[in-house]
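Researcher: Here's the sequence for the chain we discussed earlier.
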Amino acid sequence: MAPQDGRPAPQKRKARLALAEKALQAADCDRTRIVRRYRRYPSPLVRDTARDWRTGRIERVLGGDFDLFAGG
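Model: Thanks. This is the structure I predict for it:
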């Protein structure tokens, strides 16, 4: 993940890519890092290493409710 500066994204694709690359370099991101892991069996588990949380409610996460777990 890399934070954006809050300005609207440029219209041209090349400018958007340059802005994204600049944000990634500033954040010193490792592009090969796995952020979230999903496991259904033998017991459901979702782990998010970037936000440091885990839950067994995989169906809710896959349904889009993962932000509900991000705070704790």
